[in-house]
Amino acid sequence: MAYPKLTDQPGALEIAASIRAGELSPHEAVEDAIARIEHLDVHINAVAVCDFERAIAAAKAMDGKVPGEHQPLFGVPMTIKESFDIAGLPTCWGHAEHAENIARRDAKVVSRLKAAGVILLGKTNVPIDLADWQSFNAVYGRTNNPHDHSRSPGGSSGGSAAAVASGMVPIEYGTDIGGSVRVPAHFCGVWGHKTSWGLVSKHGHDHPLMAGKDAHDGALSIAGPLARNAADIEILLRLTADFPVFERRKPIRQCRFLALLDHPDSPLDSSVRGPMEAALDTLEAAGVKIDRASDLVPDLAAQQADYLRMLNIAMARGMPSPDGKRASATDWFDLLDRQTCNELAWEQVFEAYDFVLAPPAPVLAVPHRNEAVFRGDLDINGADHPASGGLAWAGLATFPNLPSTVLPIGQGSYLGSTLPCGMQVMGPRWRDLDCVAAARDIDLIVNG
After folding, report:
1. How much is the pTM?
2. Could you list the active site residues?
């Protein structure tokens, strides 16, 4: 079942190849992207901060120059999540009181992308504090899903996914702690990758209250790319990783997969289960070995409870929870111990299986609402379920610090709208490129 594509615009590596061949100049590539943003963003509102004048100047300075050896994305235009610092642009995380917080330096990811030849056009929209599966705030307004403007593009990298899906830009970079790369990719029908925790630096990705300080990367939270194909995800990983990662590149029909479609904390809506089952059936028909259950899987209910506890402490930076209780240092170290036990349990899973396949979220793109998704319920198969339970599918990879690539696999009907559906491909820690390679092979089989 093909997934609904919105654009035939080329990817980042395709644009870079055209520039190298002299078929397109960096200035032309940037002007084309700006024109698309000005035309499409009237209805989508993905790009929160525009930096067009500096982008045009940078592109003109590149025209006629030969790309350097380490500039595989020479002249390629892109945007990046609002929460990353770009010198001279605001970083407010959706807070009106921080709207004038102007970054003095580039985030490390931004610096590495610029060094690779990328031209930044601006920054994309987020929810307040990057804490929702929607992307709206009082400063920049609401971002719409390009497939259905009455739906959310996801969050917190919702503007990122919407910009890529609609064809405004070929690539983006976001962050993920509760599915914030994977859920927008799933909701918008694009590719996204949650990196192994610690692989990509988040230096320069700090709450505006920490402006100008060198903050810790933070537990669980990662930086990861979004794109419309596997090759662009791969090059973005190679360019931004702090160190090279090991690749095995095992042929897909020699791999053993475990599919997880049931979780004790979150039922799966039929709009997601249907495309997942169809994709698994197609893979099995092509000779791919897939188990549907394993006794090796750790206690998922216990994992989810520990994940939510660590997530809440990390996002609040240890401030008291809504019930007024504050986690002690002992509580935190106990959580770290349980996280280590969970990591070791998943290592045993990956001794038997090469990859684990799972949905990124229990539903497809949700309708807009005027409060945070996690303050309400999700409609799953016609019944209301606490939205916080939907984080279970993100937590599968987040709590044990595993990599996970999301690819679009089809479409489903959710609450009266036909929408894209994604699948996450999880692998052992530091095997990020293998996850991308497996997802690429799955895409060739499932989507042709």
Report:
1. 0.98
2. 81, 156, 180
